[in-house]
């Protein structure tokens, strides 16, 4: 309810159950996507996700058009993709279905998404389901911004960029490593052991 006592402009949208404290398990996922974007469209190339419990997911879309890729993507992303004969190449629908099973392995799990400068990554991820209203209730409507988290906590030293940067899974692993470095710095600051 807003201050005027109404349910706001979208009264038909119920509050997701995952917003109720203690009802679900929050699980952190660190992800990255590679994509083609032209100012209008964000076309998913690949996505990598690493869970705090050690599980990993990686897939390449069979539906992107490499001819639409800009020079940067052609030089830094496309050469790092697995062979098109790899089973890691999947339709967007299969990626969506597999990702949902990965992100929500049990009905009580609510994903907590983290990405580095992740606005475009979030759109690329969510567009697998269509529009925002098509997202399953268990899926968050936002991604936690790791870059902002780093800024807010004093910009501690981060792990070096991996040699295989711009591979979505390598970047997702690096995002987890960055998060762990920030959290270690925060714990040290809290105990005075910087």
UniProtKB/TrEMBL annotation:
Region of interest (RNA binding), residue spans: 32-35
Cofactor list: Mg(2+)
Binding-site residues, Mg(2+): 32
Signal sequence extent: none
Comment on bound cofactor: Binds 1 Mg(2+) ion per subunit.
InterPro entries for the chain: 3_5_Exoribonuc_actinobac, RNaseH_sf, Rv2179c-like
Residues covered by the 3'-5' exoribonuclease Rv2179c-like domain: 28-181
Enzymatic class: hydrolase
An annotated Gene Ontology molecular function: nucleic acid binding
Pfam families: Rv2179c-like (PF16473)
Region of interest: Disordered: 1-21
Keywords for this protein: Exonuclease, Hydrolase, Magnesium, Metal-binding, Nuclease
EC number: 3.1.13.-
Task of the protein: Exonuclease that cleaves single-stranded 3' overhangs of double-stranded RNA.
NCBIfam families noted in UniProt: RNase_AS (NF033638)
Subunit structure: Homodimer.
Protein's name according to its UniProt entry: 3'-5' exoribonuclease
